[in-house]
Amino acid sequence: MQPLRRPQPAARPDPAPSRLSYKLHRLWLTPLIRSLIRVGIPAFALAFSLGYYLSNPRTTETIVLTFLDLRQQIAEREEFQVRVMVMPGVSDELSQDVQEVVGLDFPVSSFDLDLDQLADRVEELDAVASARVAIRPGGVLEMQIEERTPAVLWQGREALEILDAEGHRVGEVPAGATPPDLPLLVGDGVDAAVPEALALLEAAAPLGARLGGLVRIGERRWDLVLREGPRLKLPEANPVGELQRVLAAQGAEDLLDRDIVAVDMRNPRRPVLRLSPEAKSRLLEMRLAAQEQRGADG
Amino acid sequence: MSDLYQAQRAMRMMRQAAMQRGIVAVLDIGTHKIACLVLRFDGPDQLSDSETVGSMAGQTRFRVIGAAPTCSRGVRFGEIDRMVEAERAIRTALQSAQKMAKTRVDHVIACFSGAGPRSYGLVGEIALDGEAVSEQDIARVLAACEMPDIGDGREVLHAQPVNFALDHRSGLNDPRGQTGTRLATDMHLLTVGQASVQNLAHAVRRCDLELAGVASSAYAAGLSALVEDERELGAACIDFGAGTTGISVFLKKHMIYADAVPLGGEHITSDLSKGLSVSQLFAERIKTLYGGLVATGRDDRDMIEITSETGDWEHDRRRVSRSEVIGIIRPRMEEILEEVRASLDAAGFDQLPSRQIVLTGGGSAMPGLDALAARILGPQIRVGRPLRVRGLPQAMTGPDFASVVGLCLWAAHPQDEWWDFEMPLERQSGRLFKRAARWVRENW
Hints:
The complex is a heterodimer of chains A (298) and B (444).
Chain A: H1 19-29, H2 31-54, H3 57-75, E1 81-82, E2 84-86, H4 92-102, E3 108-109, H5 115-123, E4 128-136, E5 140-147, E6 150-155, E7 160-164, E8 169-173, E9 184-186, H6 194-203, E10 211-217, E11 221-226, E12 231-233, H7 239-253, E13 260-264, E14 272-275, H8 277-297
Chain B: H1 2-21, E1 23-29, E2 33-41, E3 62-71, E4 75-76, E5 79-80, H2 83-101, E6 107-112, E7 118-127, H3 135-143, E8 154-166, E9 169-172, E10 182-193, H4 194-206, E11 210-216, H5 217-225, H6 228-233, E12 235-240, E13 245-251, E14 254-261, H7 265-276, H8 280-290, H9 297-301, E15 303-306, H10 313-316, E16 318-321, H11 322-347, E17 356-360, H12 369-376, E18 381-383, H13 402-412, H14 432-443
Parallel strand pairs in B: 1-6, 6-11, 12-17, 17-18
Antiparallel strand pairs in B: 1-2, 2-3, 4-5, 7-10, 8-9, 8-10, 12-13, 13-14, 15-16
Helix pairs in contact in B: 2-4, 5-13, 7-8, 7-11, 11-12
């Protein structure tokens, strides 16, 4: 028989948690346990599985190879190839030197180029003042090179060198080659005093072709040597001023055309002229003659 | 006596530890429902910076972060009756409160209403040597109180010094540092049945919790339902529970009397169930929906459908008028109030300066109770809701949660009890070195 009433709803389950679920719930609410389960165990499992996977050397090798292969593939793409090197406004000899120093085998991937190192290597060349290296679109390696301009020749103890206006070495004149037409400096430690030498040379411009060169004495002062004529010994302090005094004397009295071996200006308050032996004996004779004349008169 | 001292001290230590950790649960074990709140103590008062708000007796120091009321099981007359069932109910309440608080609770402060609380007033007096009153003098005067014969199988639940008198001056809260020749104290001692305290401790321990304090729920309800002036001037708090009706009398901010009448809302329900021959559940429903205490002419025409499931159509389809329901409820409520009146008379409540009566607890929601109580208990009656504390859910602000809220306040700002004071020197046995150190400290 069917019951007439609606079926009774099932009795409500006991709302009380069992002892086990109560304890587990309390355990779950413990901060340490909670953080351990939520962070500690997953982190440990991840670290452990990763460590286990990587502990096989073949896997590591495969991963490394795959990575390198991928890098290679990307580096060899057409977009990253550098095919030409340009150096706008650089002389031929220097550009050859630069190409030797750089030593690149085009085409090169731009991934393999270390531009800073390249610039440093180029700057180690004597003739280069500074270099900037950049890769331009279209696979062009562009070097902006500033050359040193040769200013003087320096006859050192070993070789004939070319220096720029600041005393940096630009190059060397090979033995037997014709040196370039530059003023000549001689002596030790000239490279440290090139600006002073240049000032002297500028002041000595009126001498023209008679100017032989400058000699550095004792790494502290200059002697100016003329091709025909006396040697000018200049002081350590204000050599340009003393040179101008001598040149003024030359202009007024043709000092340098006389029979003099040296003009010693080392002490500006007491310039000394050294006569040649003939001039000296001649002067002596003249003085004797003048004495005799006076004696005869007296 | 010393055992009790040590046990209560251990509980006090436990509460200190719980405060340090910042999380403590309060549990009100009632006959009808078990309510659990999880409190978080944030350390120093957050609101005390503003000048308008004081520390408010520590009420600003905590926040309710988890709250769960649950239907009580295995509790009769405010005492644990069936251990396993009661434990399940406590577990239910605690688990949902913990879930809401998202934290684990290890310490619980509990209160219960039953176990026949009995109040004793104790008087102690000692002579002083004319020096300032020290901690030791207080310990001595407390020890000088004569212990009444509380009977076998009973235990002290509260022992609060409510008054100190120095020579002719009475009403001192803290006589330390004052000078006199005679120090007297009044102490209020509340005892309950030992077995029910032990049952409670056992049930809490079975839930893997530590018991950090036990209070009488009448006391707790008084703490939350009475305002400060009422507690100062003298007032009684009547906590209408399901199994018992708790009474606590306060004067000068101290509880001076507590009692419980073993009658409550559940008796009204069973009266309805018997009178209308319906199930307890249905009777409870009628009581809460249609219950009342003062019948009017309108109530005769207000018919209530009664349904039951016996299968007898005539029996299952009945209608009773609301005045019949009131006619069943009222005599029982009058009986309860008469009992309360008798208890208050025994306590000398009519001697108090202000005889304010505050009704709280679930039964106080009965319409017309204030009118009825005014006729039986006295003219100054109000229905009290518990104090509002931070984070308490809206659903738990009703008068039936007065004692659990009061327990929060008690946890935050406990009254000094006898075991919070020092032990007198004569009673400290053994620790010779400690006594010597104390002697040196006091005499130099």
